[in-house]
Amino acid sequence: MDFNYFLTLLVFSPLLGILLLAFMPKANESGIKMLGVLATLPSLILALIAYFSYRGGNDLANFSEKLRWIQFGGQGAEQSGMFSVNYELGIDGFGLIMVVLTAVIATLAAIASFHIKREWKGYYMLFLLLEIGMLGVFTSENLILFFLFFEITLIPMFFLIGKWGYYEKEKAAYSFLIYNGLGSAILLIVIMVLFARTGTSNIEMLSVMMNTENAPLFAPVSESLKMGLLIALLVAFGVKLPIFPLHSWMLRVHVEAPPSIVMIHSGILLKIGAFGLIRFGMGIFPEQFAELAVLLAVLGVINLLYGAFLAFIQTDFKMVLAYSSISHMGIVLIGLGALNEAGIQGAIFQVVSHGLISALLFFLVGVLYERTHTTTLANLGGMAKGMPLASGFLLSGAMASLGLPGMSGFVSEFMHSLDYSKKCQSLRRLVQSASL
Predict the structure, then answer these.
(1) 175 lies in a domain?
(2) Residue 337 lies in a domain
(3) Can you give the pLDDT at residue 236?
(4) Cβ of 235: how many Cβ atoms within 10 Å?
(5) Is residue 256 packed enough to be buried (19+ CB in 10 Å), middle (13-18) or exposed (0-12)?
(6) Pick from 120, 99, 125: which is nearest to 44 by CA?
(7) How many domains, in total, are found in the chain?
(8) How much is the pTM?
(9) 330: domain range?
(10) What confidence tens digit (pLDDT) does each residue in 165-218 have?
(11) DSSP assigned state of 375
(12) Residue-wise over 376-395: b if at least 16 C-beta within 10 A, else e?
């Protein structure tokens, strides 16, 4: 099978849906909603083709694409390939998992969006633009292209929250924009410093140049500068994850955004933080990342305990899930702090597991709200009588979120008990006690 421009088709196929929606009458509610769902299917089908092709023995390198895009520095730089920004798409194992997860949740969220009661045309056009941004983030092979797709996710999210959200939707939208905008600004500074010092934005080349003695750099990159850049990345992606105390914006979004959008936000967008830390932090600055391992583990424990304790005292179902997400992202940080194979695998498994669980739970939040017009826990008693199927799925999702043995949430937590088996005794006890 020829995979030329396969990833381009995968990433930009929702654009066809946007163009078709632009010519549809605004009053055609059923047609707009149906087209909005159908427009997510090509990306889902292509993502599954890529996954099963890989499982069948196809090398992921066959999916790579590279085109000359922007050139700085004149003819000499053009010949050497330095100071050029190429259109580069590709996927590794983690990226493939995230692409499939994104495509699956986007389709489910598009179906869940049937509850949207006004301005369906604008909603689905922004929704599909958001999907393009998310798919682009997980397939970008250079930092500048990654940043552009990263920013594409912010614009539609701002309007989807601010226009189709609930009572304090504007406050939630601006809080989202301010926090994530600051994170984006920090990320851009890191990218520009790396580009100026190395002459490249290619992630693989940066990984090699940052970890090779006497690499042909255009300006020296000291160990202290590397550490400073890694800390900046930790802050930028820590906002997205989110890491305590950079989390307050996320609580507002979970409460005020439509459930279908929170499915995307909690299931996919939060995971960009973990993806960035693994792909860029650990990939480009491995030695400095190792020096921050204990800090990551401690931050993970704080996230885990803070989110869990506050989830217990909430009276609104959406707030329970919001604090639960903070707690589960702490498990990801703990896995990364282990700096071993089991820890990283556990962190990635937690990313995927929480993505599916949170998408399911917020889908059910939308179902409950449509039937009861409330998400207050005290008012949801006895719902199993009238909604047995939804109650069954809700119980399954809750048990998985709790990490019950046999459920997906248990695997990553169990792996973390192995992650720290060879760590110092105090850190091992701290992590294992927090996990319990």
Answers:
(1) no
(2) yes
(3) 95
(4) 16
(5) buried
(6) 99
(7) 1
(8) 0.91
(9) 292-436
(10) 888 899 999 999 999 999 999 999 999 999 988 888 889 888 888 887 777 666
(11) -
(12) eeeebeeeeeebeebbebbe
Tokens representing 224 are: 């202290």
Cα dihedral across residues 25, 26, 32, 36: positive or negative: positive
Instruction: Give a yes or no: residue 417 inside a domain.
Output: yes
Q: Is residue 314 part of a domain?
A: yes
Measured CA to CA, the distance from residue 207 to residue 200 in angstroms comes to 11
Tokens 């279908």 belong to: 260
CA proximity to 144, closest of 60, 212, 232, 69: 69
Q: How far apart are CA 378 and CA 201, in angstroms?
A: 52
Model pLDDT, residue 235: 94
Contact 397, 328 (CB under 8 A): no
Burial of 1 (0-12, 13-18, 19+ CB in 10 A): exposed
Report the 10 Å Cβ neighbour count for 140: 26
Residue 129 contacts by C-beta under 8 Å, 6 or more apart in sequence? 14, 18, 152, 155, 156
Contacts of 238 (CB under 8 A, 6+ apart): 183, 246, 273
Residues in the chain, pLDDT under 50: 76
The token pair at 148 is: 């552009």
